[in-house]
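Input record, target 12 of the design panel.
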């Protein structure tokens, strides 16, 4: 009669295989006790099996650990995002609707609640330059460079317009850069129905390429607000120039107050601005015909036509100046406050908008002609004014039937490109250079 082996407690086993599983224990209990040599062989087999089991567990755990780790990348190496092949055109905002806020409205409300809470507790609002009226020293050289690039841009566009023809519609804001106007039926002027939505082309000027966005020049942006009755006591200059002046550029014709002590605010109320100073009178009241090199006024007359061999060089310099002005304005607007009307194209450089009542946009009667101020974006201060891209300026005019095959580009980029400048890669997706324009009879066969 066979006798079963007594149950062996784990404490009596060798420490090298303490972690034996229950299934192995059950097998050990059911194994018949036949002899001492058989028992030793069984113990060796069990020990060998436990060692193999532990090695397998370690291998699996190490594999899982290694697979869970991502390969380390060098933080100094940044992956450049590929430039898309084609992008959509900038959306045309409806005129009977307010512009969207560049900052989410919930964040604006949250910041207002925090300021109100600090004011109720009697705590001053923490302000940093330039919000406290002081200049940012690191941005002063950039402001001078942006102003110099702005002057180069005006001079270059004025010279190129002597050789590159530009047309503008007399009924709407459409601009076209070619030997003749296009035939796309998208005119929205008051008499467009009589012309079947065709444009009424006239010779264009520099204001059709560089859209004049002007702003009031303020001697003290934190001083008295401009009222409707006093609006003619202030000069209006390009918004880009006013932004550079407030960022630290000194122009004798347009002085600006430079504070040595920061202003103090409690909520929305200024409790210490260092007093009010008498603002100098506008210099243009004495001699309004004095030319200014940073204004587009009569720029075509101030700059003569260039030589034919200098046109490609001037076009490339103008293209580089346009890119620098746009990037510089974006950097300055991250620090200095610029306000824009949510209904019209009015722009004000300063912490608060003016109180002049000349907004004639949607539902201006409800606002008594006042502007709906909100934070501005770079396209409102320095608009690109996109125009249809013409691949062959001497070819046939653009047709309305092939409208979806054409691309667009900023007006300055289109002028410089036709003058011989290299187009930057970031403008090529919107120009749709990879699309083949079919013939008129082939356009109906395109899916």
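The sequence produced for target 12 reads:
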């Amino acid at each position: 009669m066979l006798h079963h082996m007594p149950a062996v407690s784990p404490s009596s086993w060798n420490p090298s295989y303490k972690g034996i599983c229950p299934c192995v224990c059950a097998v050990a209990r059911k194994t018949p006790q036949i002899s001492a040599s058989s028992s030793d062989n069984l113990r060796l087999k069990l020990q060998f099996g436990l060692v193999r089991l532990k090695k397998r567990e370690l291998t699996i755990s190490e594999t899982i650990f290694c697979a869970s780790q991502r390969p380390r990348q060098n933080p100094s190496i940044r992956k450049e995002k590929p430039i898309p092949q084609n992008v959509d055109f900038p959306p045309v905002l409806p005129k009977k609707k307010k512009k969207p806020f560049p900052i989410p409205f919930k964040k604006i409300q949250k910041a207002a609640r925090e300021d109100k809470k600090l004011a109720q507790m009697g705590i001053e609002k923490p302000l940093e330059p330039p919000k406290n009226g002081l200049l940012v020293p690191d941005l002063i050289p950039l402001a001078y460079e942006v102003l110099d690039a702005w002057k180069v841009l005006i001079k270059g566009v004025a010279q190129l317009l002597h050789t590159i023809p530009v047309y503008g519609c007399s009924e709407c804001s459409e601009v076209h850069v070619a030997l003749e106007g296009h035939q796309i039926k998208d005119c929205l002027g008051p008499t467009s129905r009589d012309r079947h939505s065709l444009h009424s082309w006239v010779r264009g000027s520099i204001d059709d390429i560089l859209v004049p966005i002007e702003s009031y020049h303020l001697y003290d942006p934190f001083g008295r607000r401009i009222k409707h009755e006093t609006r003619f006591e202030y000069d209006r200059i390009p918004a880009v120039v006013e932004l550079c002046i407030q960022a630290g550029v000194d122009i004798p014709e347009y002085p600006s107050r430079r504070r040595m002590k920061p202003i103090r605010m409690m909520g929305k109320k200024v409790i210490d601005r260092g007093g009010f100073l008498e603002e100098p009178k506008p210099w243009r009241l004495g001699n309004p015909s004095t030319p200014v090199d940073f204004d587009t006024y009569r720029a075509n007359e101030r700059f003569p036509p260039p030589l034919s061999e200098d046109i490609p060089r001037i076009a490339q310099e103008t293209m580089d100046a346009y890119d620098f002005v746009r990037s510089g304005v974006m950097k300055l607007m991250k620090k200095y406050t610029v306000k824009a009307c949510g209904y019209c194209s009015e722009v004000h450089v300063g912490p608060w908008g003016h109180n002049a009542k000349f907004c004639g946009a949607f539902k201006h009667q409800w606002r008594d002609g006042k502007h709906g101020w909100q934070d501005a974006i770079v396209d409102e201060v320095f608009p690109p004014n996109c125009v249809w891209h013409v691949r062959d300026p001497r070819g046939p005019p653009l047709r309305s039937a092939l409208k979806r095959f054409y691309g667009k580009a900023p007006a300055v980029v289109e002028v410089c490109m036709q003058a011989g400048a290299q187009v930057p890669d970031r403008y090529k997706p919107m120009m749709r250079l990879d699309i083949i324009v079919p013939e008129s009879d082939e356009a109906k066969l395109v899916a």
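The two ends are 91 Å apart (CA to CA).
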